[in-house]
Amino acid sequence: MMVSSETDLGSLKPDFWSKEDVGRWLKVNGFPHLSVKFDEHDISGPVLMMLTEQDLRKPPLSLQKLGEIKQLAAIIDQLQRAYNVPELRKHRRLYRTDSADSSKDLRSGLSLIPKNEGLKFSVSLLYAFTSLVVTSIAMTVAHDRVPDMKKIPPLPDIFLDNIPTIPHAFEAAEACAVTLTLSFFCLILIHKHRFVIIRRYFSIIGTVFFLRALTMMSTTLSVPGEHLQNCAIRVGDSWEQRLQHVIYIWRGAGMSISGVRTCGDYMFSGHTAVLTVLNLFVCEYTSSKLKFIQTISWSLNFFGAFFILAAHEHYTIDVIVAFYITSRTFAYYHVLANSLAHKQRNSQELTWSWFPLFSYFEENVDSNVLNEYEWPWTPVIAFISRRYKRFVRLREERRRNMAVKNTIKTE
To answer: 206, 128 in Cβ contact below 8 A?
Structure first.
């Protein structure tokens, strides 16, 4: 069951809810028959934020139906988590009696009320940006470490040795990547939980590219094809020349269609990593009914990988390792993010080595992200509507207060 506060409560935090606001919140979440009982016991917003499952079971509330108790306790707990009430954490550890299995059905949707989404987006963007800068530096260093192909020819490769170089195949691979990027961008625009998805994307792509930078700095392989004559041109020894090359790579996003040509960035393929992560995000967050979109996405992924090899820009092992690392990183992240048992064990520290910001990004996401869609302008209209309703409500309250004061003065 999803927590909802999208009534005429506006953007008021639960701490400022009145008894009537709590009643409306109960009705929206499927408990209209409890609004009278909550009103009798003066349960306003601040009191609601302190309620536990034990409070619902014991007098004076004394709810009798187990399913009702569990469901209501779950959505109250979600509301408390969404607003990150620190003084209730000890309470939850002491009195939480629902198991992972019992809560799984209750939290079938995304149980969050957006909090600090803009800040989380900025942090995830900074993390991905930093990884790309580090990768550009690693590519610059690796370029000058590439062995002379006259002394060390291309390594034996079962695919490259049997398939001739296909002109413009690398540009075709990048066209597949651009198509998947546009598809992902369109998905972000219409998905209801766009901020959750985009920060997961930045977190995963950032981690993958940090790993790629590490492999490039560790071992430098010989060039995979004799046609890569630009590899003989060195960046230079001065820091100014290297900095210019880093900016050159970063500005062109490392893509040949932007004029960027680099060598030494092998083990593993960055193009394959980007193709794979975009494909996985499109398939994961697209409705399962749209099989044709998922089929096209996977086709672009595999054709892109084939074109990379057909261009002789990477060894076969580069593509295989890139696909494996990226897909496993994606799966690992989402298994952790979707695991309620993981959250109840308080084992977020286990993810720190792979995803340093995992706990921060996922702190308000208590279950799987449902594939729900809306027009991009819907949240803007809803925000303006909530602000307007709050303004009207506050204006009416001021008018009533003034009327009461005038009545008192008259008497």
So the answer is: yes
* b/e code 286-313 from CB counts within 10 Å (16+ = b): beeeeeeebebbeebbebbbbbbbbbbb
* Active centre residues (catalytic): 271, 314, 318
Backbone φ and ψ for 147, nearest 5 degrees, come out as: -65, 150
Contact 91, 52 (CB under 8 A): yes
Give burial (CB, 10 Å; 0-12/13-18/19+) of 184: buried
pLDDT in tens, 40-76: 888 888 888 888 888 888 888 888 888 888 888 888 8
What is the Cα–Cα distance from 411 to 408, expressed in whole angstroms? 5
The 10s digit of each residue's pLDDT in 291-341 is: 999 999 999 999 999 999 998 888 999 999 999 999 999 998 888 887 754
Task: From 354, 368, 290, select the one nearest 326 (Cα to Cα).
Answer: 354
Among 102, 109, 289, smallest CA distance to 192 is for 109
Q: How many CA atoms lie within 13 A of 343 on its CB side?
A: 25
Using an 8 Å Cβ cutoff, are 389 and 10 in contact? Answer: yes
State the pTM of this model: 0.65
Closest CA to 104 of 361, 368, 370, 371: 368
C-alpha–C-alpha distance, residues 135 and 81, integer Å: 37
Q: How many CB atoms lie within 10 A of CB 32?
A: 12
Output the CA–CA distances (angstroms, integers) from residue 76 to 15, 112, 186, 210, in the order listed.
13, 12, 34, 39
